[in-house]
Amino acid sequence: MENKQKQTPLSELGEFGLIERLTEKIQLKNTSTLKGVGDDAAVLNYPDKKIVVTTDLLTEGIHFNLMYVPLKHLGYKAVVVNLSDVFAMNATPKQITVSIAISSKFSLEAVEELYSGIHLACEKYGVDLIGGDTTSSLTGLTISVTAIGEATDEELAYRSGAQVNDLLCVSGDLGGAYMGLQLLERENEVFKVNPNQQPQFDRYDYILGRQLKPEARGDIKELLKTLNIKPTSMIDISDGLSSEALHLCKASKVGCSIYEEKVPLDSQTKAFAEELSINPLVAALNGGEDYELLFTVPLASFDVLKKEFDITIIGHITAESEGANLITTGGSVIPLQAQGWNPLMNKAKA
Ligand SMILES: [Mg+2]
Predict the structure, then answer these.
(1) Of 92, 278, 320, 333, which has the fewest beta carbons less than 10 angstroms from its beta carbon?
(2) How confident is the model over 125-149, as pLDDT tens digits?
(3) C-alpha of residue 21 to centroid of ligand 1, in Å
């Protein structure tokens, strides 16, 4: 993970020197950013728009393991998971703030590597880094990202808007990030026993990427707009399909039926699940970190949506009294359970 070049202790720069170094190349992209880094606070301008704000805190040893997550990927992912929450409101992210607490084990070069991932995500998603804070920690690394986005009143999609008979849809495919994590953990165990053995990643580049470099689905808002479809409710899939479907049903006071054979799974997700003798459906339902979008649309959108290869209709909304269920290929009805991973109970996952 550490590269071979010179490692500069952070104490050589001091906090202000570090902040200057990390922010000197920032070029503001959005007209809503009137003032970014460099004053006591950033200044934003959003005439006639609703503003969404979301924040996430990632802690070393709980949310990520630097044994197998490169710092650049970590920086990228820390931004993307926040942008995913903005997209899940059917809004468009415009600004982020980033705060980090770092221990003395990190050099300037390591922190710059982390920020190169953060800047890359800002570039890719067109958001401005407008502020944050850096401080020291006694052990390990903590990153907090706050994302700010915009939408018109009509565009905003809440978890609470699903109606009975709406179609339940999901973008992309599910379970890949979880299988990617299983792969990383397996190779990490092999490495501990035999550091000379090269990791076996070749056939599984897709699921590895799903875990290490997830993308947020900013394209879905645009796609639905183009198709003239307004989502009635939306949530991003960070904790597994089961958990998110239950959140959506609870907030909307409805039930749902999800059909097992409709849940989209990539061929690598299936192949690696088979190698580990686990059911890939479990990875999709309970795995998490896929950062796809789960949303509902009116039944009338069926003909238009079924032609979209990147969106899958996985079921429909039912009355609350019917509950939230998985309908298996054999026709059994199984109540969904929230087994999404809980960072307060699990060991380090990413
Ligand atoms: Mg979310």
Answers:
(1) 333
(2) 999 999 998 888 888 899 999 999 9
(3) 32
